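Treating backbone geometry as a discrete language has practical consequences that deserve illustration. In the encoding step, the backbone of a single protein was reduced to a row of integers, each denoting a local shape. The amino acid sequence and the backbone structure tokens for this protein are reproduced below.
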Amino acid sequence: MSVKIRVKRQRLHLDIYVGGQRHWEAIGLTLGSDKAANKETWRLAELIRQKREQQIVSGEWGLLDSLAGKQTLVAYAEQVAKRYSPNHPLSHSVAYLRKHFGELQIGQLHEQAVEGFRHFLLTETTLSKTTASGYFSMLKTIMRRAVRDRVVPHNAAGAIRGIAVPDSDKPLLSTEELQRLARTSPGGELGTEIKRAFMLSCYCGLRISDLKSLLWSEIDRETHEIRKRQKKTSNLVTIPLNESGWALIDDKQLHRRDEKVFPLLETKANLNDYLVRWSTTAGLDRRLGFHDGRRYFASAALAAGADVVTVSRLLGHRKLNQVQAYARTTDALKRQAVDNLPAIEIKERRG
């Protein structure tokens, strides 16, 4: 067993030889023209080399679950997926892990193999870049959990860059469009309930999965707040409702705590088909989906002056940059930013 530092195109790697197999791992360090900086880079590389060597030795000395490390990557991914809903991206990603990695043991996964999966998703599937990015991040999630479960000593996917996703060019739902929807009847009892649920999403940012499972026990009638543990992330969010949002669910009736606020949403009918017909009737030139309500809430809150931290917490995100996936900078925010610049008198004085 050996772990050595190698240089390739000014980038430092670890050359690891274990059990008759050799592979290289990038460590994210690059040499430059500054000798002092290079000396510090080599010092850091040596610390990383020592830590990596200790991780491998830990595995060889039985400090890891050696039996678990011999299971296939797919088998472990399936175990992890059971902790999530069937509609979670991790569950959907298993089929692509199986197609690419086959019977590869999780303990044999190395960085070149991870890079190969990244290339596979981008070039050998018909997945959109957004979906490919999500499935690749699921591999990272699986390997982080494998390290925590002491299945493997090292996250082989940790240093591999993710798949960048371009900004969505889908226009945000405008307040004028929302007003037109509010004035339009979708027709039928189910259509009316779908309308109320979508409009509530525009006022609180809940996903369709949370709207379907929303219970009256999660509604505070005194404070007009929703306290909901999100189904997708398990994050607990507290969302206050304004008068318009509260009016969508306040039916002036008593309900059991275990009763759902929108019971008709559990239908087998395609809810998005109702949204499309509703938006067409309202004269909107767009294909409406439930996620448009969440994006509208985020963008409208930002445009109204809410800061990114507040909006992120209302949405239930742990990272601030996740807000950008739902709310791009609007024209109103751009105009506000420019209008708030200090006024400077440009006219020159003479003599």
